[in-house]
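Researcher: Structure for this, please.
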Amino acid sequence: MLAARRRFPAAPEPFLDLSTGIAPRAYPMPPLPPEAFARLPEPSAQAMLCRLAAARYDVPAGARVVAAPGTQILLPMIAALRPPGIARILGPTYAEHARAATLAGHEAREVGALAELTPASLVTVVNPDNPTGQVLAAETLAALAARQRGDGGLLVVDEAFGDADPDLPSALPLVPGGGVVVLRSFGKFHGLAGLRLGFAVAPEGVAARLEALLGPWAVSGPALLAGQAALADEAWAASQRAHLAAAAARLDGVLRQAGLVVLGGTPLFRFIQAPPGTFERLGRAGILVRAFAHWPDRLRIGLPPDDAAFARLAAALA
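Model: Predicted structure, token format:
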């Protein structure tokens, strides 16, 4: 927010940050015992967390969950599972995938069409996509996985925004066949991004290698306990999905009332077409959204957290 304040010094306080895809309603953190901070976590605590994640995500037999302090730290490790070669990422999308592949020694490039993804030693797709919300069909994911297996490559499917809609196509059933790693974010859906917790779902051998690279105690004791509580709370997850769907529909109404075109998105954000200057107009009103250098007429807008925030956005767009 410091960068936003420097860019818009006259904007009213406080800034309303709608630039992320993080749920504005957070899981209520359970009371944490002092031991969670004073002692290194037991391996059994991480094993329990991974079992709960496997149940929440319906991970199939032959695939194993690896816990990490956020999926971000996993990206260069996963990219390094294949020798340096060609990496292709379906985009435009989350820029860290290309950066991580480059760090691992690959010649990395975003491409705009499925046909341009292969042949490549490393193929990455974000499903649903960030920021467009585009969803790849199960048949498309299966075809990519088969191509990568046949070529000795790897398919990485980032499902960071999948928790908000479990009916979306997932690559998790493809993992036991090999050549596929799926990423799942914890913080976005649960509104706890600062907790730094995420998961990779991989075949047994790949999972063991990732765990070795992460080393012991990679996930903090507080994150383990909070993650266990949240992943075991299916009632809260169902209520969160209903809350997000209602908030996204309400946001659609505000945007359309302002004459903006909703192009796509997920229950956690909307991807819109807006006249040039909309980002600056909102910034001067103290509202931060996500702009794109390569898309001057596109914005990503997250969910306002309450009635006052919805009213503030509507007034700024009026």
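Researcher: Any notable elements?
Model: The longest strand covers residues 295-302. Residues 91 and 112 are 5 Å apart (CA to CA).
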